[in-house]
Each structure stands twice: as structure tokens, then as C-alpha cells.
Amino acid sequence: MAELFGDLNPPPRLLMGPGPVGVDPRVLRAMSMPMLGQFDPAFTAYMNETMELLRQLYRTKNRWSFLVDGTARAGIEAILVSLITPGDKVLVPNFGRFGFLLAEIAQRCRADVVTLDREWGTVFTPDEIETAIKKHKPRVLALVHGDTSTTMAQPLKDIGDICRRHDVIFYVDATATLGGMNVAVDDWKLDAVSAGLQKCLSGPPGSSPITINDRVVDVVKARRHIEAGIRPDDFVEGNAPIIQSNYFDLGMLMDYWGESRLNHHTEATSMLYAAREAVRLVLAEGLDNCFARHRLASEAMTSGLTAMGLELFGDQKNKMANVTGVVIPANVDGEAVRSMMLHDFGIEIGTSFGPLRGKIWRIGTMGYVCRKENVLVCLSALETCLRHCGFRSQAGAGTDAALAVYRDAEVPVKKAAIS
Ligand SMILES: Cc1ncc(COP(=O)(O)O)c(C=O)c1O
Q: Contact 145/174 with Cβ under 8 angstroms?
């Protein structure tokens, strides 16, 4: 008889890596709600509600704020493939692994890609980006907000104005920051933004919230095309080249999310429930409260690590609020520490790659996991694991320092919303 295997029974883990992180139980509950037909008015009402919640999350009036089914890179691909006509010049200021990803996706869309590279652990100044725009005259600027590979957050505030001055479309990958750091789409003049659920939004991977403004919608409309089997008789094709992907054609996705309810794909029902609930919970907590909760955890974590005699990685002025890079001390086997954290304490912390491989750990304090008790437990476990692996720090120094940060803070967190 064929083997049936055992129950699906994942071991309990505290996920304190760069994502995914623990999912809020209320999101898990939402995912267990019954299926609805995708054009059932009850379901299309949930779709409209999700769009409205996403506008609030992204601090935008953009009508076209909706979900692309798939992990965060589905949103990236949908935006880039819909924006880029083969031959377009795309500038990617690259300060970590995900800059490489944007460049790679743009290349697959047949863009003429120019990258601007920085040492990992640093970010760009607006002047550097403007100089590169003047030199290369790109049609699109594609930039990561928080790059989890380096734990750095690129300030975005002044870059939108630069793009408008030079008539460049500005796309931002906010996968790792949305919900944990401010992403003020309209104020900062971000033309297109995408994200994922599995970081500061406390949801599972598998749905990508995006928002696009009229500058992007105009490009997409000029490339309009609808597949033959569902094309209305009165449909008029756009006169610009067709978008190279069917699944990620933002024009058809807009028709699906809009009044015409084009029967494009079958919406991932349970993921829509998850996204709606995840975003609703962040908004119920209050965006600014949520950002403050992440900042406070970052301060507590960095104080605790420093008190243990560990060195933080990267330019701390531009550190993401939700991930911390820690230099692995000399003579310590970083993987042995991670393995002990996982197997003895049930805590996952992140490894690293590229030029940082074997050099830093990445500790996440994101979304539902971003709480005082988790910061304290993680620091305490790390102290023990480090001692076993040959690095001694003063007993209790890390947790005491982190606790002091929490005690000192006038915690502007609405406890009711997260406990
Ligand atoms: C900044 C950034 N962009 C893109 C991704 C890719 O996301 P996914 O693995 O959900 O496709 C990640 C995932 O860690 C990320 O941190």
C-alpha cells in the first residue's frame, strides 16, 4: 500500500529571521473561512474592501490598489513586465540581493538595464541617484525600500521628486517594509509599489499587494489586450506593444478587479481572506503605532546585542526597523549557533548570502512576532548558544539592556490590537 505519511504537524517555531514570520492567528482563522464563487457579490464585496484597506495601508488615493496572486515577486514581475517595453532603459540602484532581483526581472522583460552598485550595508544619497538618472536617462527607476539581505532601508522621500523632474517612472519594492515602516505612496510620489504579506503584515507568503498611479495606468492602458476567449465584442486594443505575460498583465488584472469583472484568473480565495484580515489588523492597530512598535523592538534588540558585546552590521542610521544584522564573532561557527537556536530553543534566526555569507546573522522582529517577550527570549537564547559556541558575554546583559529599553519607553502601542 502506498505510504500516507503522518499528520501535517509542523514543530512550533518562533520565526525571527528575515521572513516569513509567524502568522497572526486571526489571519489563519480568516483563511479557514468557506470558499465563495469569485463573482459572488459577497466575494466581490470583499475584493472591493481589500482595495480600500490597501489604499489606507499604502497611504494613497490610487484607485488601482489590489492583490497579485503569488509571492512578493509576483507583484514585482506584474509591475515590471507591464511597465517595460523591450528596449526600455531601467535604472536599478542596487544595495543588496533584491536589487539584483529587480535587475534580473527587468532583464527578462528585455529592458536595457543599468545598475548602480553600492557596498552592502550602505544606501544611496538622492544626489547619487539624480546624477545617475541624468547620465543614463532611464524610463523606469526600480528601487528596493528595505533590503532584508543587508538590513538597510533606502530613504525614499526625495527620490519621487527627482523622478518627476526627469520624467522617470518610479517603482519601489516594499516587500520587507510595508506595515513596519512608513511607505507614503502619494506624499513621496511613488508611481508603483509592490509587497508581500509574510513580513510586517503577519500573513503567509502567497499574495502580493500592489498599488499603481495614473502614470503607470496610462502605460498599461496603451498596451491593452484581452485574451480571445473572454474578449468583449466592443474591445479596442491598445496601440503600444502587448504585455509579455498573460498572468501578470496588469491591464487584465485591472479589468478583473474593476467593474467589468473580466473572468481572467480564479482569485486565490483563501489568500484574499488572509490579505484582507492582515491589512485590517495593521490598520486597526494604527499605522503609526505599528511603525513605533517595530522601531521600539529594533532599539531593544540592538541595545541587547550591543550589551552582549556583539557588533551590529551596516550603517545604523539607515537600518530597517524590522531586521537587525549582527556580525558573527571571530572564531564562532555561525551555523552551529543557528542550529542550536533552532533545535534547542525553537527559534529561527536568519543566515546571509552573497558577500555577507557566513559573516552576519539577520534577526527579524516583524509583524506578529515583533513583541517584547520575543525580543527577550531571543536574546536570552542567543546568549546561551553563543556561550556553548565559545563566545562569552556578561550573563543577562543582553536581556537587561533590552528590558531597560522597553521599561524606559512610553510604549505607544495599542496593546489590545496585538495581544
Ligand atoms: C525586499 C524583498 N523583495 C522581494 C522578496 C521576494 O519575495 P518572495 O520570496 O515572497 O517572492 C523579498 C523576500 O524576502 C524581499 O525581502
A: yes
Residue 348 grid cell? 529561527
pTM summary value = 0.96
For residue 105, the tally of other CB atoms under 10 A from its CB is 22
What count of Cα atoms within 13 Å lies in the side-chain half-sphere of residue 132?
A: 24
CA of 230 to the centre of ligand 1 (A): 33
Q: Is the CB of 19 under 6 A from ligand 1?
A: yes
What number does the ligand 1 atom closest to the CA of 18 have? Answer: 14
Q: Which residue CA neighbors atom 8 of ligand 1 most closely?
A: 72
pLDDT tens-digit map of 47-76: 999 999 999 999 999 999 999 999 999 999
Q: How far from chain centre, in Å, is Cα 302?
A: 21
Beta bridge partners, 94, equal 117
**DSSP annotation string for 269-310:** HHHHHHHHHHHHHHHHH-HHHHHHHHHHHHHHHHHHHHHTTP
* Residue 144 near ligand 1, beta carbon < 6 Å: yes
Q: Give 184 Cα–ligand 1 centroid separation in angstroms.
A: 20
At 295-336, the pLDDT tens digits run: 999 999 999 999 999 999 999 999 999 999 999 999 999 999
Does the beta carbon of 175 lie inside 6 Å of ligand 1? Answer: yes
